[in-house]
């Protein structure tokens, strides 16, 4: 028997009304349906929707043809999702709104590009106001990005194999580990960065 998105949403809504946590709902869905169960983020997203008062479970935004999916209502819905969680994937947006991938791509890149540039502009303006000298980043050079060659690999190594009760718990651990990086570790990293930069320039 094939379970539709609406079927899964009904189950999620039932668990929500029974005062289960998103984690408990996820566990039950995985126990019953295994790999066919919705992703963890989808369950958390629907719990958030229900907490805001949403009660309809149908595919609210589908118009029947991909070309009609790029409408103001969908643009606003995608913007709201992205502003709520910038790490949402295409598939998770699709699962939430049930609009086609092409429409999501068009909305994100054509209609919300101003929003993305605005975020970048804010950062640049803030740094400039603090008299921080801005330097252009070398394209496609992860070995010159401290996050790529130092911070993220170390954090990933420390978090490897850990299980978390919720996304919030994972974020909390991530922030704690970042705050535990010592000044001497940063200094050592910066010396390496200078050495890498000299090699790059030569």
From TrEMBL:
GO molecular function terms attached to this record: DNA topoisomerase binding; double-stranded DNA binding; histone H3K36 methyltransferase activity; histone H3K4 methyltransferase activity; single-stranded DNA binding; single-stranded DNA endodeoxyribonuclease activity
Domain Mos1 transposase HTH: 5-53
One Pfam family it belongs to: HTH_48
Cellular component, GO annotation: condensed chromosome; nucleus; site of double-strand break
UniProt GO BP: DNA double-strand break processing; DNA integration; double-strand break repair via nonhomologous end joining; mitotic DNA integrity checkpoint signaling; replication fork processing
Record-given protein name: FLJ37770-like protein
